[in-house]
Amino acid sequence: MLPQEENDVSDLVLGEDGLARPAWASVDPLLREYYDTEWGMPVRDEQGLFERLSLEAFQSGLSWATILRKRPAFRVAFDGFAPDVVAGYDARDVTRLMADAGIVRNLRKIQATITNARAVVALRAEGGLADLVWSFRPAVTPAPTTYDEVPTTSPESKALAQALRGKGFVFVGPTTMFALMEAVGVVDTHLVGSHRRGCSGVWPD
């Protein structure tokens, strides 16, 4: 969930607390808290991954800050992103969600979330969403020193997108899947020198 469109500066910024962060996480308190505590940390549970997959889809064409501010409302509207519950949504739920000003009211994205919930449930018979996502962890992770060096796709994100589409998922393009992989620790794209580099424990500093 890296809000790439929000950053105009590639290098790290040293905060008043003495910690180095990328520019996108150095000003807005909400983004800074997200960067310092959540972004890039491993997520291996089905519900957590389904939430992040869903929010990545809703973010398409919007800023991540917008989605992050609406996340509490999203969680209420989508029953905590419990896959079994969302998989059972019907036309009445779509109407309810389209009337909810607290979330992004995009019909295709709402319908995609329901479709993906059903795909998550079906995927349990083959090991589950977490196993599939983490199976695309690369042999090495990027080590960007500037923002321009942070990739937006990878061979693994392209393969993951293809695999998910094959399982009935939608709104899972290679760029969206790379953002998901960054957000949940499958890759580490914290800039070298950031105080969060290596924080996930998945990859060495």
Automatic annotation (TrEMBL):
<keyword id="KW-0479">Metal-binding</keyword>
<dbReference type="GO" id="GO:0006284">
    <property type="term" value="P:base-excision repair"/>
</dbReference>
<dbReference type="InterPro" id="IPR005019">
    <property type="entry name" value="Adenine_glyco"/>
</dbReference>
<feature type="binding site">
    <location>
        <position position="190"/>
    </location>
    <ligand>
        <name>Zn(2+)</name>
    </ligand>
</feature>
<keyword id="KW-0862">Zinc</keyword>
<dbReference type="InterPro" id="IPR052891">
    <property type="entry name" value="DNA-3mA_glycosylase"/>
</dbReference>
<dbReference type="Pfam" id="PF03352">
    <property type="entry name" value="Adenine_glyco"/>
</dbReference>
<protein>
    <submittedName>
        <fullName>DNA-3-methyladenine glycosylase I</fullName>
    </submittedName>
</protein>
<dbReference type="GO" id="GO:0008725">
    <property type="term" value="F:DNA-3-methyladenine glycosylase activity"/>
</dbReference>
<dbReference type="GO" id="GO:0046872">
    <property type="term" value="F:metal ion binding"/>
</dbReference>
<dbReference type="InterPro" id="IPR011257">
    <property type="entry name" value="DNA_glycosylase"/>
</dbReference>
